[in-house]
Protein 1
Amino acid sequence: MTTTQESPTAAGSGSSATEAFRASTLHSGAGTDPARVSAIVSKLLAGIHDVVRDESVTYPEFQAAKQWLIEVGEGGEWPLFLDVFVEHAVEEVAARTQDGTKGTILGPYYLPGQARLATPATLPQRPDEKGVPLVFTGHVRDTDGRPLAHAELDVWQADEQGYYSGFAPHLPDGNLRGLVVTDAEGRFEIHTIQPAPYQVPTDGPTGKLITAADWHPWRPAHLHLLVSAPGHRTITTQLYFKGGQWLDSDVADATKPELVLNPADQGDGTTAVDYDFVLEPA
Ligand code: MBD
Ligand code: FE
């Protein structure tokens, strides 16, 4: 596999995701019905037992697995590992009962409480922020086609090197994050830059597993969004870029054809794209 960037020393981006998760409310809300716990955990364990038998897993392999699991916890990489390798299946189940714009996984790098910006909005960025400028416009509507005024687009993205603010110490807090509010016609206009592909940190336990299995550690370039409006079900989604590297082999298996943007070159080095969101009643 070729890589387009130097391996980032992730120095903490995975473990900062554990702190962000603990500070969030994402870990509350599941029930504790013993029958449910038993059903899920029994099947999970049976799946592991099947692998052990099918692959004739040895004692050294079992102990190596234990060591690796300890390192994932100590390195604070459980949110990273689970969101990369498991969340897409959970999202698939959630999508069975969701109408409107396709959703996809949230991932480990969402941070609530960003600046609220009226449209047209420019995402907070450094004075010398690198990357191809992108003007991202569209409307938020309900499933009957009615525009949703004052809907919120909570947007976050990596920079032109694939790093997220809040998880990379060299970036200012809130960089390339913002909560953009639609106007009276449900329209939004967001000025930003095109992100780079994201590489799972190669220096942590998740990256070491990826290397050990000879997989690649890349996600295609993407914008993250939570799109919400009062009385409507929030959509968690991501938008990708046509022709982008890793689009067909996302390590997190979270792409969908409906979520691929095709920005038009404006002839002056900038790009622009329109994309509409549809929210169902809550
Ligand atoms: C990301 O940027 C991401 O979006 C996901 C889902 C997992 C790891 C890093
Ligand atoms: Fe991401």
Protein 2
Amino acid sequence: MKRLVVILLTVSLLAFGASAMAASKMVIKSSDVHGDGYPTVEAIKYMGELLDSWTNGRLTIQVYGSMQLGGEKEALEQVQVGALEMTRVSVGVVGPIVDEFNAFNLPFVFRSSQHMYNVTDGEIGTDLLNQLEKGGLIGLGYMDAGSRSFYNKERPIQQPADLKGLKIRVMQNPIFVEMVNSMGGNGTPVAFNELYTALQTGVVDGAENNPPTIIEHKHYEVTGYYSLTQHLMVPEIFVFSKKVWDKMSPMDQQLIRKASALCVLKERELWAAKEEKAFAELKKVGMKVNGDLNKEPFIKATEPVREKFGGKYSELIKKIQAVK
Ligand code: GTR
């Protein structure tokens, strides 16, 4: 009898402990280089609101935007060691952690936004997200970032030869350095949180990005020409720390997955509106936009980059290209 009481007591204490653990309050910290109003930031805030309402305030997200926690490389490192729960970064900086992601970082690999959605929403996208675990990350979803084109202070880029002599900032990944070099410019890796100053002081002459980023970070103040080469279509990604994730209850993990799926859709909707608005704003703030250029010479010039960096993943690339 005494033994039975002890067993029952132990079992109920364990159960109490488990539910207390499951019920413990958690503020998920998530970083972003962009600030309030940017689609990625607003979508993560929305994800936080969903979690908050589903759990009566037990799970919430606090976004640290505007590079408060530094650049994207550091943010990923913080998430890997579990010092930060979540971050939203470009797939551009994920390639050096999980090599397969570099298939998405190759110039002219996606034909259109729809093609990119079909790839990231399908088997290939899910498979790559799962591979993030080997880098200590839990992949929660992709976000749209449109396409990236060159902008600089010197001249419009009408053909690859116009890049000659220009130092063009790229994200910290060797692929992008070679991508710019293959087109005739000088690819220079600079962390995003140092880019405005690098443009202002002439450390670089230009960079490459989407219109919302140029508007939001006022890069038009320190450049002047935007040329629609659209050479990259690099998705954004939001990831959770595997170290933290492994200590969470399956129920909470499921809630986060569910909120992530809705967050992805929210960002797409916000992105479409933001991109259209930013395109119009570029002209208003005085950027000279040349949209009418022949992409063929740029595609041709970057062929060696696709061969060199894509060689290892030629099967994966074939699969990406086969997606409708
Ligand atoms: C932006 C992207 C950021 C960051 C930045 C960059 O388009 O949203 O995550 O990667 O580009 O060029 O570093």
Protein 3
Amino acid sequence: MSDIDSVLKEARVFPPPPEFQKKAHIKSLDEYRALYKRSVEDPEGFWAEQAATLEWTRKWDRALEWNAPFAKWFVNGALNLSANCLDRHVAGPRPDKTAIIWEGEPGEVRRLTYAELLREVCRFANVLKGLGVKKGDRVGIYMPMIPEAAAAMLACTRIGATHNVVFGGFSAEAVRDRMNDSEAKLIVTADGGYRRGAVVPLKANVDAALAACPTVKHVVVVKRTGQDVPMQAGRDVWWHEQMEKASAECAPEPLDSEHPLFILYTSGTTGKPKGVVHSTGGYLLQVALTTKYVFDLKDEDVYWCTADIGWVTGHSYVVYGPLCNGGTTLMYEGAPNHPGPDRFWSIVERHKATIFYTAPTAIRAFLRWGDQWPKKHDLTSLRLLGTVGEPINPEAWMWYRRVIGGDRCPIVDTWWQTETGAIMITPLPGAIPTKPGSGTLPFFGVVPEVVDKDGQPVGPEAGGYLVIQKPWPSMLRTIYGDPERYVEQYWKRFPGIYFTGDGARKDKDGYFWIMGRVDDVINVAGHRLGTMEIESALVSHPKVAEAAVVGRPDELKGSALVCFVTPRSGTTADEALRTELKGHVVKEIGALARPDDIRFTEALPKTRSGKIMRRLLRDIAAGKATVGDTTTLEDYSVLAKLREEEE
Ligand code: PRX
């Protein structure tokens, strides 16, 4: 197999704005470089120093014990995550500071101070104990985006129960499989949650799931929507009734640094979900440090990460990172286009959000809905924008910068994974000049490289496989119940180094350009092209909102390029546009990437977290029936439509 040919050309560079730089935690490229150098010459020394920013109940003996590929960070240290996120702020300068600003989809707003959140968490920790949950037990959380979800997570960490959050958009089957795989003892849910004006029947899904979950003994139900739900005597209890009776005092349990904090199942775009296990001390340290430096978080910020707590981004950057830093984190329950396509912008305006962190899939949707929606609102409170989850096409990046950021806000394109726990490759907004579509440089202590199939660095500008060469504190520790799969999946391909599964290129400035999953690489006439780069060329055309490119087996070329294209609102999708787009890709990339086939579609099939499911599109392009797991499909009707168009 040859390496990956990178064809994306992008020459724009945006230095940090001087006013931003002056006030930033890290103020210049030189400062970043000096600290980075220090951090990789002696990563253990660097992380050991940083560990002093957390509150430990027992000091650790060694920063790292590395029996590749199994790591222990802060060996024999003990701490409690909820104490780091809550108690120390309450005992310190922030008891009355707002910890969470919450907005429900119907429009209600709640604010919880650090002192109030701590009381909620202690109460719920006592409720869990009362229902027989002990240190080391697994607790399922299947909830809407409401403050109780964050409180439930923190309550688990207070007593040392390992949480397993399942995204509220998943089905009963997904809940059942995840509860069984993790052998959960209790599940926290709500009667329902609001999504695009409708009610998601969470409790009904739990009831269906529990028909085949023998380990789950209790269900705690938050009353959110007030619809009628049957309560099974002896098993189901109401959150509010339990909380009323519970004491607001609960001492935080000192936990070993390596104590399993949570399990999170990655749905991914292929294969059976894996229960990724994260530990306590190392995870919290890297999450807290990245939140501070990547988002340049200050006490006065109103920080909004739009991720659902069902994803790792929700764990690390809605709940734990901001709270550990004493920040104010904004949570929104519902859809971005309810009641109108400007809902997010009205939230930014109403709460004067200063930092906004979202996903490329959302940005491309905003772009498609049109500039008029953000233009209706005052977005001048924003000072920093972020993106995560997929490669962002340079044109979507430019739109984000111009229309949402008013050409004023730096953009941090943060590369990381459920498995990495925290951000790994990213700009620091006051220090690192950005280039649209690049995650730029590694975070402190992180040593990534782009290698060929033999594990040798490929050198500047060449495409290859993205690996991480040294262990990092927030790395996954194992796959729950399946350490062999952990070794097989991440550490076999290049022995002793971590294989991310992503393709990438490093440019002459050492900037990383992530090309997406390596299974999204197509071999066209001997060139291995990352689909993301061809998609970016398509999206750079003014009539295109979104595109997905897949290969179709072709006798002559190996693969033919099939492009699924969603035009912008108001565009006629016809033969003329097809010809125009083919010419456009040739102009942007070259004749080697000329699309063989362009199919117009109103929407693309996506995973629940918004990643395009190219596997399904490949099957459609090849005329095959869909195979494999489709439980993560956002919208089955999209798939049916694409099929119809084919017939
Ligand atoms: O392919 C990369 C892509 O998302 C994958 C990780 O997905 P998940 O575990 O769901 O975590 C998402 C939130 C961290 C990566 O292997 N990815 C994530 N962020 C970026 C990205 N690709 C390019 N640029 C990014 N900033």
Protein 4
Amino acid sequence: MKRIGVYTSGGDAPGMNACVRAVVRNGLYNGCEVIGIQHGYEGMIEGNFVDLSARSVSNIIQRGGTILRTARSEQFRTPEGRARAAAQLEKAGIEGLVAIGGDGTFQGVVRLIEEHGVAAIGVPGTIDNDLFGTDFTIGYDTAVNTAMEAIDKIRDTAASHDRLFYVEVMGRDAGFIALDVGISSGAEYVAIPETRTNVEALREYLENYKKVKSSAIIIVAEGEEEGGAFSLAEKIKDTAGYDYRVCVLGHIQRGGSPSARDRILASRMGLAAVDALLEGQTNVMVGDIHGKIAYTPLLETWSQRKALDKDLWRLARILST
Ligand code: ATP
């Protein structure tokens, strides 16, 4: 394999740049050329390609976002769009791909592999940490730290005003961010999509908390089934006895300089993705399982559900009393 294409797709995540850097430098180290595909699948369809040298990825390991840009592409969801993308790859002589993104990105690349015989390796780049086949995704650690720091600040206001805060964090389908943020910020309650939120029981908890705690923080994952922080707050309203406020952290969780942990994870995964392509692997995602690099068929990364750690859930419940 002589030419490798790399792209970032779906939501940006801190550490994507560190991963691109690792792909480029390991590709060059192994005598390959590395081509950056800009704006994800949209750029692939348009032939938006750029040669990447070792120096072109200097000074990016510390930067959030993605220098390759990212995009959502409706065209790529159609067979015609993918055929155009495959033709562009062939024209540019790109023989293997490193796809950095989440489950949507992987579903797209699997279609490209099956329909056009392209070789590709997935790298989990998403703050949600919701992919099966890896303990951590690139960007997750930074997002948790960003949310935790924001909640530390909210805590000051909550304590000063004797208030209850409902803080909504990202996580449409999974409560990984919410649970880790809840534990690390000492939240009084965590509401996540994986478990049913019993509104009555929560109201009761809060009424009891009010007798001993003048302020409280409830972390709500955006995909929580009661409809998110505003909706949950509205359902409990004044009955719990607290004056309350709602704060949605939103996109602040996506940006920022990646943590050391994300930079290292991204570097390891980028290196491993190129190694895998050169070994002849395809249609797998690079993951980190118990601290070791592991490869999982791409299909399994979204068709199998990654389980939430029950011990962490128990820990959050016990320590919030
Ligand atoms: P995040 O987890 O951060 O949202 P993601 O990779 O899941 O990232 P998506 O927007 O779901 O982000 O997917 C990125 C792109 O992948 C889509 O815009 C689309 O072009 C392509 N894609 C997603 N699902 C499919 C599919 N089933 N078939 C073909 N292409 C797809």
